[in-house]
Amino acid sequence: AKVALIEASPFDAGTAYVAVDAHKLDDFKPYIFRTHDYGKTWTAITSGIAAPAYVHAVREDPARKGLLYAGTETGVYVSFDDGDDWQSLQLNLPTASVRDLAVHGNDLAIATHGRSFWILDDVTPLRQATAAVAASAVHLFTPETALRIHEAATYTIGTGGVGQNPPDGAVLDYYLQDAPAGDVSLEVLDAAGHVAFHETSAPVHEVAAGVGGMPGEARVRGPLARTAGMHRVVWDLRYPVPAPIPGAAYDERPPRGILALPGTYQVRLTAAGHTYTAPLTVKNDPRVHVSQADLEAQFKLATQLMADLARDHAAVNQILDLREQLAGLQKRLAGDPQAQGILAAAADLDRKADVIENVLYQSKAKTGEELLNFPTELNSKIAYLEDEVDFGDTAPTAQFREMTRDYEQRLAATVGQWEALQQHELKALNDQLHAKGIGTVFVIH
């Protein structure tokens, strides 16, 4: 029989664990022994592991006493009660001989025979799992500290055999004993109470981010899982973006959310009519040396620009919807000789709305490359500036602030024209429609 290296407990000098591999003696039973008295006596602890899962290694989690991992000939097992009971931790791991394992930070790394290295990212839920958690109807786990890293995603060349990196951002885990009635929602709130992240089990329709400045396709995001069992969601540490303009083009890339500041956040899970909360800490990239004041100044200006972009998008979407209504109205009344005044007013309103629309966004460009052929308008200018302000870890420059003031003045003037158009030309058209007993056109809000 082969005796593996003894795993000494970091919590108790008298406690240790040892795995014995006897398969070369035609004994495929699992053997794990535990001592609490410096090896004077040993107790067999293999309940839940059966042959042919003979054991190669056993390790204790350095962050939780009595949380053990065992590498066997058929996979990985975990014990939450110091080895008294074991259960499979196989998940998506192929059936393979696990020759050794190690806990590194928050991750469990294993070495298999013939199936390469595997890593179980973020074992935080295992460290917090208890009998009370398993018995609860809903449980929100306290997430591990998240690192704030700019441009965490890297460009890779597909060479084959390359492992998959863990997700960037905050890993949020929750447990549902049964599928609850109604929707499930998961939010992250910042210190000011603003929603930095929101997901729901109700389908959300949105436009996916495009690549290389190209507009993304319409899609249904989510929904957030509401089935029984463990669920994991990753927040990329970016705030939500404004409702998009369908098919709009942008320089380089579409708008993306502002990167969250280092600090304390609150995770909020709502399920089965109850709300559960947990703290989340976000720390800055340890390689970056910048003051919190500089980061806050950067975040403040980026937030201001994102609000400007939201105002631009909202006005454009209102104009697009109104012009669609006007087109339908003109089509319906085209053959009515009594409606010439209405048709003329509708055409005039449409022309003026078109002028305003094309200051707020470039309707002729459908991709970022096409902006080389047409003037870049406010939506792309503001989005590009916001992305530059939010890029890197530094306070905004004087030039960034000056450009912000310039864009905001142009935006305010153009949105003011749109509001005046609603108050006068649109109102006059609706007065004519009302007098004729025709349904009015309206602006969405």
Give a structural overview:
The chain is built from six helices and 22 strands. It has 445 residues and is an alpha+beta fold. Helix 3 packs antiparallel against helix 5 and helix 3 packs parallel to helix 6. It starts with a strand and ends in a 10-residue tail after the last helix.
Which properties best describe this structure?
single chain; 445 residues; five-stranded antiparallel β-sheet; alpha+beta; 25% strand; five-stranded mixed β-sheet
What is this entry, summarized?
The chain contains 6 helices and 22 strands. It has 445 residues and is an alpha+beta fold. The longest helix is centred in the last third of the chain and has 42 residues, at 292-333.
Q: Strand percentage, roughly? A: 25-35%
Structural class: alpha+beta
Number of strands: 22
What string gives the helices and strands in order? EEEEEEEEEEEEHHEEEEEEEEEEHHHH
Uncertain runs are 208-219
- Helix percent band: 25-40%
In angstroms, what is the radius of gyration? 30 Å
Q: Can you tell me the overall shape?
A: elongated
Instruction: Please give the alpha-carbon distance between the first and last residues.
Output: 75 Å
